[in-house]
Amino acid sequence: MSTNDIKSTLTYDDKVIEKIVGHALEKVDGLLAVSGGFFSNLKNNVVNTDSVTDGVNVEVGTEEVAVDLNVIVEYGKDIPKIVDQIKAIVAQNVDLMTHLKVVEVNVNVVDIRTKEEQKAAEVTIQDRVESAASSTSEYVNSKTEQVKEAVSNNTNTEKTVN
């Protein structure tokens, strides 16, 4: 019996296609981020996360895929050209890995930023808390050393007075 005689079905969970799309988008020049909306952005601002599927929604059929994206593009870049790159790279990567045909790519530009603005937006609350904790720790250590030194000096002074 050959493998052609064996019946089978191959399906993909949405998250598999979302990951393929998310990783493919990392290669698009001028695309600063894929935005998952308010709650996803809130989550990303609280805790560092590298989820490539935020802002990527797909509908997967047996032979076709439709993709919806919310993106942030770099200020000064040609947005229609970026969208053309997105469509090409998404279709190419999905086809290469799954043999599914991408029939629709809907891109919603939710923001436009400079690279500096994007970098500032990527600093999360977790980063700020970690920085504050580090500063507090350094301050406490410095004060502890000062107290130890003062106690040591007082002990030495008392011994010489007696």
Rounded to the nearest angstrom, the radius of gyration is 27 Å
CATH topology of the largest domain: Alpha-Beta Plaits
CATH class category of the largest domain: Alpha Beta
| Cα end-to-end separation | 102 Å
So what's the overall shape? elongated
Low-confidence stretches: 37-50
**Percentage of β-strand residues:** 15-25%
Q: Report the average pLDDT across residues.
A: 82
Strand/helix succession:
HEHEEHEHH
**The named CATH superfamily of the largest domain:** Cation efflux protein, cytoplasmic domain
State the helicity in percent bands.
40-55%
CATH architecture level-2 label of the largest domain: 2-Layer Sandwich
Number of helices: 5
How would you classify the helix and strand content by structural class? alpha+beta
Work out the number of β strands.
Answer: 4
What is the count of distinct domains? 2
Oligomer: single chain
Largest beta-sheet details: 4 strands, mixed
InterPro entries: Asp23 (IPR005531)
Pfam families: Asp23 (PF03780)
Biased composition (Polar residues): 132-144, 151-162
Family: Belongs to the asp23 family.
Give a short overview.
InterPro entries: Asp23. With 162 residues, the protein is of the alpha+beta class.
Provide a descriptive summary of the structure in words.
This protein is α+β, with helices and mostly antiparallel strands and 162 residues long. The chain folds into two domains: 10-113, Alpha-Beta Plaits (2-Layer Sandwich); 114-154. Helices cover 52% and strands 20% of the residues. The protein has helices spanning 14-25, 38-46, 79-98, 115-121, 125-161, and strands at residues 31-34, 56-60, 64-74, 101-113. Strands 1, 2, 3 and 4 form a four-stranded mixed beta sheet that branches. Helix 1 packs across helix 3. The longest helix is centred in the last third of the chain and has 37 residues, at 125-161. The chain is elongated. The model is unreliable at 37-50 (pLDDT under 50).
